[in-house]
# Entry
Amino acid sequence: DADVTQTPRNRITKTGKRIMLECSQTKGHDRMYWYRQDPGLGLRLIYYSFDVKDINKGEISDGYSVSRQAQAKFSLSLESAIPNQTALYFCATSDLHNTGELFFGEGSRLTVL
Amino acid sequence: AQSVAQPEDQVNVAEGNPLTVKCTYSVSGNPYLFWYVQYPNRGLQFLLKYITGDNLVKGSYGFEAEFNKSQTSFHLKKPSALVSDSALYFCAVRDIGGSYIPTFGRGTSLIVHP
# Structure
């Protein structure tokens, strides 16, 4: 089983719908992140959380919200999806005590029509 | 502020030839530097990192990277490319004294031709 699991892996939805992407991890890491990947733009940070009570906005948080339900779970929501949110979304984790390398899930491909 | 530049969108190399994927960075203090690889339809995988010490860092799958402080570069290298090395490569930097959040480059697509 993967250490960082994202669901769903693929989702097609319509403009205005609410979408939740879920992430769970078995690595025991405190820190969790949501990134968005667009061709030619690399990875951009949406939100991050250093522990259950800590939520922080990244560089592109508008239109997104997150919930850290437990140390192992970090969900990303799009309250009202729009077509320019079509992208590949990655969840990642890192250990408080290491030098910062991230461990990524396999990605959730979201298409908003 | 921290930033990373990967000046090449795509690198093409013949199988068996050496490869280099370039990365330059900017940080206020001292850097932690990372390389990740992304195979098609997969998440990013950690390849190697520079923290301190020897400027030549060895990582997974025969890759290595050379830290050059004067040129603020951290180029990824491999002596002999394989077709299976074809993937998207990301460089990332974190300022040791700053945010714990790494900044990623835009990625370089490596294509190894048979």
About this structure: The radius of gyration of chain A is 13 Å.
